[in-house]
């Protein structure tokens, strides 16, 4: 399973005075099992791109191939696309609506036309996968749960459809540090278990560095860089030029380098960065 995006452009309000080129000739490939982090300023086109990947929006130009299906071709069924690609919107908890957690999570798989016993199995599996105790939460109202738990229920509703591609638009937005950490852990667990393609948008560079195999940088509708976290975050000046930061650990390494200390500037892992720092401090003490 892979994704190929070729020459994709999207214009909002085409032909009107407020016409907006939101995607400008986008090209990239995503391969089986990759975790992809998308970064970019507000309005750079990230959400527009995500909505193209699950067929909610159609490009004005270009093609998007998911597995062996060109989802931009007329006549491709939305159901078929949804089976492959699950999109979790920003603040998905606002879209919970059923009386119980189990009914909410069952909504998607039911719509796929699965048998009731299969739907039940998927609901239980998905809730456990997002770190909730099935027996404990299944009959509760989703509205009685904490913010972090509500979000997990909403994500479980998408996972229960077993998408080969899971897309998350700012999955940790607005959460307190504890819930943030738990959602990050949950994403890792989903990937470990399902080994699906995961694409997520985040403004948190440390999360992007930690989770992603590949990072994509968007600016004003263009995909300006695609690479590993180390490749992308070592181009600090390029990111700064479009108003983006590097992860705090990388910033720390740059600070030391600026003071003449020999360190590798592509350190993205907190543990490696700490070791470099200790090495530096030990060296300083010895002098
Ligand atoms: N429905 C719409 N109609 C017209 N213009 C739109 C619409 N949705 C988005 N845009 C415009 O398209 C551009 C890209 O928006 P998009 O929401 O994709 O950016 P984004 O990178 O996801 O931003 P954010 O980080 O705030 O979610 C922006 O200039 C935005 O104003």
From TrEMBL:
InterPro entries associated with the record: AAA+_ATPase, ABC_transporter-like_ATP-bd, ABC_transporter-like_CS, ABC_transpr_CbiO/EcfA_su, ECF_ABC_transporter_ATP-bd, EcfA2, P-loop_NTPase
UniProt-recorded Gene Ontology molecular function terms: ATP binding; ATP hydrolysis activity; ATPase-coupled transmembrane transporter activity
Bilayer topology term: Peripheral membrane protein
Residue ranges of domain ABC transporter in the record: 3-245
A family per Pfam: ABC_tran
Protein keywords: ATP-binding, Cell membrane, Membrane, Nucleotide-binding, Translocase, Transport
Group of enzyme by EC: translocase
Annotated GO CC locations: ATP-binding cassette (ABC) transporter complex
Main location group: membrane
Subcellular location: Cell membrane
EC numbers on record: 7.-.-.-
Record carries keyword Acyltransferase: no
Purpose: ATP-binding (A) component of a common energy-coupling factor (ECF) ABC-transporter complex.
Membership in a protein family: Belongs to the ABC transporter superfamily. Energy-coupling factor EcfA family.
Subunit structure: Forms a stable energy-coupling factor (ECF) transporter complex composed of 2 membrane-embedded substrate-binding proteins (S component), 2 ATP-binding proteins (A component) and 2 transmembrane proteins (T component).
NCBIfam families per the UniProt record, alphabetical: ECF_ATPase_2, PRK13637.1
Protein name, per record: Energy-coupling factor transporter ATP-binding protein EcfA2
Protein's organism: Aminicella lysinilytica
């Amino acid at each position: 399973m892979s994704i190929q995006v070729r020459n994709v452009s999207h214009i909002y309000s085409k032909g009107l005075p407020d016409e907006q080129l939101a995607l400008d000739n986008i090209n990239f490939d995503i391969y089986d099992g990759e975790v992809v982090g998308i970064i970019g300023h507000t309005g750079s086109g990230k959400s527009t791109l995500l909505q193209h990947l699950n067929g909610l929006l159609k490009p004005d130009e270009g093609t998007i191939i998911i597995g062996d299906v060109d989802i931009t071709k007329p006549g491709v069924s939305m159901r078929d696309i949804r089976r492959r690609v699950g999109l979790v919107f920003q603040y998905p908890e606002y879209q919970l609506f059923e009386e119980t957690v189990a009914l909410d999570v069952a909504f998607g798989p039911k719509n796929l036309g699965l048998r009731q016993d299969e739907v039940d199995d998927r609901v239980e599996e998905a809730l456990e996968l997002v770190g909730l105790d099935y027996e404990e939460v299944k009959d509760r109202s989703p509205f009685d749960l904490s913010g972090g738990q509500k979000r997990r229920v909403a994500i479980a509703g998408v996972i229960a459809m077993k998408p080969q591609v899971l897309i998350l638009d700012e999955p940790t937005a607005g959460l307190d540090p504890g819930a943030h950490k738990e959602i990050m852990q949950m994403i890792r667990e989903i990937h470990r278990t399902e080994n699906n393609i995961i694409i997520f948008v985040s403004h948190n560079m440390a999360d992007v560095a930690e989770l992603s195999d590949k990072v994509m940088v968007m600016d004003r509708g263009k995909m300006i860089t695609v690479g590993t976290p180390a490749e992308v975050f070592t181009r600090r000046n390029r990111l700064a030029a479009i108003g983006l930061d590097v992860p705090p650990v990388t910033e720390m390494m740059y600070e030391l380098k600026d003071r003449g200390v020999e360190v590798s500037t592509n350190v993205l892992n907190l543990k490696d960065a700490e070791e470099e720092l200790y090495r530096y401090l030990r060296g300083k003490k010895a002098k």
